[in-house]
Queue: 4 jobs
Job 1
Amino acid sequence: MDAAKIKQGLAKRDFLGFTHLDAAKIIELFDYSLFIKKQRKESPSVSGFLPLRDKTVAMIFSKPSLRTRVSFELGIHELGGYAISLDGQSIGLGSRESVEDVARLLSRYNDAIVARLHEHAVIEEIAEHASIPVVNALTDLSHPCQVLADAFTLYERSLWHETVKVVFVGDGNNVANSWIELAGVLPFHFVLACPEGYTPDHKVLDAAREKGISRIEILHDPVEAVTDADVLYTDVWTSMGREEEKEERLKIFSPFQINSTLLAKAKPAAVVMHCMPAHRGQEISAEVMDGPQSIILDEAENRLHVQKALLVKLLNHDQYRKFHLTHRLRNASRKIKA
């Protein structure tokens, strides 16, 4: 961190995961996301609401991206900022130039860094040396922006509560790790149904369980796992970087497909989620993905709104605090009148 900022006592805000947040801060972010979403629908023109005016965000993509890139670039633009997309291979992150030098240089040019990378240690190193906020837009270990949007999607539908049962059916991958990390902050019932040998990161799991906030289960029978579930969630069986395991995984994971038979074991009103991209006929059947219980496109859209809220929180905290102060005063006024 720059010496000047340390001197002023200003703590740099990053979003690498959920471990440094608490439940109240996440709910505050969800409430601001609701405001952001409503504001966008009611005001097609963003001319009157530009909390990131004149802000620039460097976005490093070392992995392919559709939803992450579009939602961040569009969100930054709608908030009045400017996004600079950088290909990780082209800039030679960690090869042509050291991670430390890239982080320090980008800090001189920009107001924030959003990075979609392979090794999680690299984004931690970027955050260590950058003097501006750093956002984890996916690593091999975690995908917190995705899970933030997922949980917000349940929150806006009034489906989020301490006993909500979220069942992740599939691989114990980076998305599953972020769900588990969230369970160490927000109370709910999380179940991962995965084959033997495909469990999540043990450090993430142990840390979340030690906090004792949520009920966290790892099961290997998908039918047992989804019984009485409120939410069925899945992801691709073969994550980026593991393509050589595809054929073997197709055989091992075939009993873990979310289809109408498995969905029938959940609660009648259960919803189905998928972080996409999806492979119809593999981890999820087409009839379920396109069926009435699917909220998959809703959660994909919400990446835009949640990430916009997150960027305002990180880059214009005064605007963010002002909203919550006004919101609290308005609610207090309503209670007094009542």
Job 2
Amino acid sequence: MIKGIKHIIFDLGNVLLNINPSLTDTALRELKIPDFDTVYQNLIKQDIFNQLETNHISGTQFVEIIKSAAGIPLQDHEIINAWNALLLDFPLRRLQILQQLQLHYDLVLLSNTNEIHEQQFNQTLHSAHGIPNIGVFFDKVYYSHRVGMRKPNPALFQRVLDECSFKPEHTLFIDDIEENTNAASALGIQSVWLKEGMTIEKDIFLAINN
């Protein structure tokens, strides 16, 4: 553990929750949307995915936009299932680490996500481990679609520091995207970039595992 830490801010995907975005790409392609690559690029240009993650459009609106863009008849559940395909599992050891950390640190969850994914990953957690939602491990939870901002926006990190009364030098932030850890570091937050292949149980919280 980095010295002087009193507060820990966790990212979700690929830090606590295993994800594989290529599975959603595959699932969307399997819907047989004509000229899928062009459709997908147009959605990116329209900023649809960021709008979903900052609640400028709802999950229902997102599904309707995809249905309209697809150009073929699609059911809501087909789109939602494809969109959720990237969400995998919460390894039990990571949940146990959170339980142990709760005894000694202030814990905050900070994730770029959306309402469709939130419903699904909490359902996955409940089905696999009997835990109602990931928020039970944290003092506060900040989801981009609930606060209207996404990492690496410095204003989002500052909001967490201010609302939680955290001093940046006593705060550790863990994320799998270097752009996000760089933004946090610029505010004085001690940050760890969880590179591909690294895990919190193998590479960060070794003492807890022993």
Job 3
Amino acid sequence: MLKVLIASCKGGCGKTTLATHLAAHYAVEGKNTVLVDCDRLASSRHWCERRAGLASAVLPIDGTRRNWRERIPSGADCVIVDTPAGASVDDVDGLLDFVDAVLIPVLPSPFDLEACRPFVESIAGLSRIKRGKVVAGLVGNRLRPWTQASQFALEEMRQFALPVIAQLRDTQGYVVATGLGKSLFDYHAEAVRSHQDDWKPLLKWLKKSGA
């Protein structure tokens, strides 16, 4: 069973979009996928509800309840855990005995970079991550590669204590798709294929890392 934790110390970084798209990818592949929503706003759970009529539905679980681990079906192939906005290092540490991998989305703005660096350094220093029991990496999110700002941000991210696993470009397609309970992986149009390709390094990393 693949178990991936999505976390960030900063709200508005695209954490839930990352979680829902990762869940959708595995569901579209035919895997029994569970999305645990630990945020009281329940955005991930609402997305799952909108998706319920699709063949590639994703099972939502309320992660704000203490017994949520017990509610994961034994036949689940993938579990994606969406943490609350502004998660603390302790929040992440408390879940490392359960997950295989941690993904931290980072936006290409000076404020986000400044806020996330101490968080990333603390996560990298956690025992299970230092010992390689859990893999962890960064996802550059909402990038505009043709701008100097995004290029500068990527250079900054590469100086962080965890590796940059993937670079996801900015597109309104994410907003439109998630509003419908879908993802870019639910479409086959030429316009979305290049954005789907942005995910390949991340998916390959998860597979190669044994997560």
Job 4
Amino acid sequence: MSLTTKVGFLAGATATTIAGAAFAGTSANVSYEDLQQRLDAAEAKIAELSTTQNADWLTEQRADDIRGLVQDVLADADTRASLQGSGMQAGYNNGFVISSNDGQWMLRINGLMQNRWIYTHTPENVNPVPPGTATGRKGHHGFETTRAALNFSGTVAKDYHFNMRLLYSPYNQGNTPGPSELEWAYATIDLSDQFSLSMGKQKFGVMREYMVNAEYQQAIERSLSTYYWATSSITNGLKLNYANDSFRANVMYSNGTAVSQWNGGVNQNGSFLSDSADWMFSGRFAYKASGTWEQFDEMTSPQGSEAGMLFGFGWAVWEYDDKTGAALPVGADVDTQWLLTFDASMDFGGWNLFGSITYGDDKANAIGGGNVPDGHQWGWQVQGGYYLTENAELFGRFEWLNPKTGNDNDNIEILTIGANWYLAGQNAKLSIDWSYAFDSIQTAGVGGGGFTGFVNQADKHEWVLRTQLQLMF
């Protein structure tokens, strides 16, 4: 019998009893105290029945809960056993990572977006580079997605590594074959704890400012003078690497480099038929006096980071393939070319200094109205930043370069000042900077005009205002 039925019968009986007693009146001679006792007894019985029924209900609910909990535990155990068998871990560690438990198999996925608004002003009406853009104005301004990239890197069977990056940019290879390209793609084999071998499409690894990825620069863009040099580009080749706690070095044999790589030059990064040099060797030696190698992966030194000093020396020597027209003018017999560069970086945990000087002999890259003047170009730059707060940084840079473009006054002198707001470290950063050129800039002969924002103009005093929102993961 259910609780409701029992309580109903008991309540009815109680009501009948009380009513009967009430109707009996004085003949039954029932006292008020007697009625109260009977009522109390009935309420006690009702409470006892309710408690018994609730106890049974709680017992059934508890049993259902326990059964559900056991099923959840068993399902979780099965899932963990399955994951253990596959050896998979997933999470975020400088990118989204999928890895085996022992780390011998790993995939890291990174992404980058750099969206800019740029205003450039020249004293005279000019036709900017690249061609086909707005012409005949002193001022040019607008929005652009300068870079949008996906990077895939990781480990295969412990001793083998890969790194490849898909990049969209309006300045990729002069839009030939298009604005999207495989920026780099190379594989690395660990030969020992200190030696490794990399093969594929990769950076030369000579000049530090170019070696640091675009997303870890201090200014919005690398210096125009850095883009000028032949090794500030990407090629196909074989590179031997050495690394220990204090020293890093590499030696590379590659296809060489084309003229004006970032300004519509020849695509030397494709098939073996695009080989622009008979041969090319390059390399770099770096000494870390203090700090960590990881901190020098970026050009800044945040507050609270470790102090450190890094010194680097890079070199390259190559022979152009005169028969393919890699030399300028086409078919010219160009002598063996070379360059030397030295850089120093100092981090102080809240402010930093960087400087470099480069000297080389590159006749084919010294373009002057169809003439090939003597090489012996050289240039230098200094750069530094200071954190006003944990998230706000001021920076400045001055660069000087004699590119031997054949003009009477062809030195490049550019001052850049700006600020960074680190909204979420390097992962979300808002930047603004302003660059002023004291002399004329022939970007058609220098390169880098696209990414830096400078246009092709023969007069002095061009200036560029750049803003950038960077998001990366």
